[in-house]
Amino acid sequence: MTPNNFAYLVMAVWPFVTFVLLRNYGIGKGALLALLCSYMFLPARMSIEISGLPDLDRFLITILTIIVYMLFSGSLSSLNLLSRVYKVLLFILILSPIFTALSNQERYLFLPGLTLYDGISSSITTLLNFFPFFIGATYFREENQQIYLFKTFAIATFVYAFLALYEIRMSPQLHSMIYGYFPHAWGQQYRDGGFRAVVFMGHGLLVAMFFAVGVAVWTCMFKLKVKVFRFKTGSGLLVVFLTLLLSKSLAALLYGLLAFVAIKFSSPRKIILVSVLITIVFVTYPILSATKIFPHQDLVELAASVSADRAGSLQYRFDNEHILLEHANEKPWFGWGDWGRNRVFDPETGQDISTTDGAWIISIGVSGWIGFLSTFLFMIIPIWLIFSKDKRIKSMPIQSQYLISAHSLVVGLIIMDQMPNASINPLYWCVIGSLAGRVHDLISTKYSISQTR
């Protein structure tokens, strides 16, 4: 099925909607609302081809509109690139696709070699998708801006819960009804005798992750006694949590439970410690997997105690990770590049015998260890800095401590989900950028504790 005319009309009109949001709400709030709405309501897995530009999907259209608006309003220079380490990482992140292309000019089975144009195009796309990180770091770096970010995200998940509950009951059909096509494999949205909600995000797992983050931000608002709506914050938390429970994603449910228990019952220091442990697991997992130290079989047996189907799915995932990691390590520094060269094919039949799920294995396969580290260190460094600046954090008011620790856990959950899935997107980069900007202010010599009061 192909997108209907309404899908193309929505994509064509969206730049004007984004412009109105930016003009009425300002660059920070307007950009956040545009990114949220594009992820929640625009057609998924659809792009428009324009000669000389990367394929324009809903996020790239939104980001390009934001950049153009900032350029003509003279606001582009206001973006804060933070510390020197982030500038170095950004330089590596943008430059590495070019080295990937230059080191992959030979054919891989039936796939053509890469050209310098491919490398430059990939660099531009990487920078555009990453651009919301700087929006978050610049416009959501103060405490009141953090609270606005969390409240907006909480409202979005509450509203989306009702669309998701409809699809859980009636089947995921809203995308097909409105845009004329289904964005993924239908069979993957049926689990345990019922349906996952897809709505307009493209896959049930993405929707479940959205609600897992929602549980985290709602719990934070509940802990801080911040009113999101007129009714009690606990009611909103309950609606979002029940929707997550019915979303039929064990991983996302565990993320939500972890966030609720940690934020509701733990101290800020312990919440930060949990976030640090998540980053350690994420960074070491590829190495432990390659050396066969990670307890894959134990996890499969644990999953088998819950469901034979889940155990089989997990085993299948681990088997694919193994062959993909072996393939990736043939070009460890800069990876295999795009066009499916990171995948594994049968040399005789040419059949694709691999399935790429986790963002970590996709990143290593496409961009190598250089691209992997330069990408994910943007997420990891802010959490490590919070942990290392313990005295500075403890000198803050207790509410400020809980806010920044909860924010670190939200980013930790996003990182964790890049192991089984590939849910990272420009909206989440904005959330990550907000934490990075907040941490930068905390460790800056110009920072005063009175700013948080």
UniProtKB/TrEMBL annotation:
It comes from the Bacteria. Its main location: membrane. Signal peptide: none annotated. Residues 237-372 form the O-antigen ligase-related domain. It is found in: Membrane. The chain crosses the membrane at residues 7-25, 60-79, 85-102, 114-135, 147-168, 197-218, 238-263, 270-288, 360-387. InterPro entries: O-antigen_ligase-rel_domated, WaaL-like. It is a multi-pass membrane protein. GO terms for cellular component: membrane. Keywords: Membrane, Transmembrane, Transmembrane helix. PANTHER family: O-ANTIGEN LIGASE, TEICHURONIC ACID BIOSYNTHESIS PROTEIN TUAE. This is Membrane protein, putative.
